[in-house]
Design brief:
mainly beta, eleven-stranded parallel sheet, nine-stranded parallel sheet, 2 helices, elongated
Length: 345
């Protein structure tokens, strides 16, 4: 089987290499006028420097209440300040809240190893998308990261981690989700440590990293380093166009159950029940540099190379699969795949 797959990949590469456009699209952040805001009006604790969330009533390890000067939730006030041009800083610590950005633009948030009990979510508000958002530093969610109908986002380091004591709802994580209508999003590093299963709560959680969205799949997703330490289900499921991944390492996957799991967009019913480390499906014009999948002591597929637009090929420079059975390579390749693999180890 291995020789058959390799031969197929080599032939496909030779046939389609001329179709691949190596000049991929860059993320250019727009420079639009900032809303002007009088920061001093919202200060509660002036011993902290401008931009420090504690200055406005948001403290780690404490309940977040109202800012009496804005008559709004203190965290919402902080986000208003960020949208008004103040660079916001979350000091190191554990914040007992979600971080939700809806219809926000021109934000610059600094996280000094801050963690959140709930989800970190970026999405639209009615018809207004979120855009031009920068996360500096390292931030952790004990729930999930979710982004939808948003564009021009840059994130230094995003960690999604299972901790049923620290999580807002006392459940395992639902991973990293890049959903419908997302365009131009860049991560330096994504680490996913644990993904839950076995309850209806996880019915739409198919993979630790999901890049998906029916009829409006994400475009131009860039991830320099993606590490999945463990996942109850698939390691990663990737659709869309013009993505670039420099390094993907799937260490452990398919350790849970598919019970209550719903079908995944862009797949046929039942396909979601076949677990794998990395599933690339309808992924057009994308680049993968280095992929490592640990399939040892795992009876599931390591890799699914699913269908795509043959005129817009996706290229994988190198795949390294660690597996036990030397007679059977744990790869599925669809007869209509558009994926080219240059090197397979």
């Amino acid at each position: 089987m291995k020789s058959k797959v390799v031969l197929f990949l080599v032939i496909l590469y030779s046939f389609n290499s001329c179709l691949k456009n190596e000049n991929t699209k860059n993320i250019n952040f727009e420079s639009t006028p900032k809303k002007l805001i009088d920061e001093a009006k919202y200060v509660l604790f002036d011993t902290y420097k401008i931009g420090d969330v504690r200055r406005y009533g948001v403290f780690p390890n404490e309940r977040i209440g109202m800012n009496p000067k804005s008559n709004k939730n203190a965290l919402e006030t902080v986000i208003d300040l960020a949208e008004g041009g103040v660079e916001i800083i979350f000091p190191e610590g554990y914040y007992k809240t979600n971080l939700v950005l809806e219809g926000r633009e021109q934000l610059r948030l600094q996280f000094d190893n801050a963690s959140f009990a709930g989800e970190i979510r970026i999405n639209e508000n009615l018809k207004k998308e979120s855009s031009n958002i920068i996360f500096l530093g390292k931030v952790t969610s004990y729930s999930r990261f979710f982004v939808r109908k948003s564009r021009m986002i840059r994130i230094d380091e995003m960690i999604v981690k299972t901790d049923t004591i620290l999580s807002w709802d006392k459940k395992e994580s639902r991973g990293c989700n890049i959903y419908q209508g997302v365009e131009d999003i860049f991560f330096n590093k994504v680490i996913i440590d644990g993904l839950g299963s076995g309850e209806s709560y996880y019915q739409y959680t198919s993979a630790a990293m999901q890049i998906y969205g029916w009829n409006d799949n994400p475009k131009n997703v860039r991830i320099d380093s993606l590490i999945v330490n463990s996942s109850d289900r698939n390691g990663a499921y990737i659709t869309g166009s013009d993505h670039k991944f420099n390094y993907i390492h799937i260490k452990d996957y398919a350790t849970g159950t598919t019970k209550f799991m719903k079908p995944i967009e862009d797949t046929s019913a039942g396909e979601e029940l076949i677990m794998c480390g990395l599933w690339i499906n309808r992924c057009n014009g994308c680049d993968f540099k280095e992929i490592i999948i640990n399939n040892k002591d795992n009876d599931n597929l390591a890799l699914k190379l699913d269908e795509g637009n043959i005129k817009s090929s996706t290229v994988i420079d190198n795949i390294n699969i660690h597996y036990n059975n030397i007679d059977s390579l744990p790869i599925f390749d669809h007869e209509l795949t558009n994926i080219i693999v240059k090197s397979l180890n």
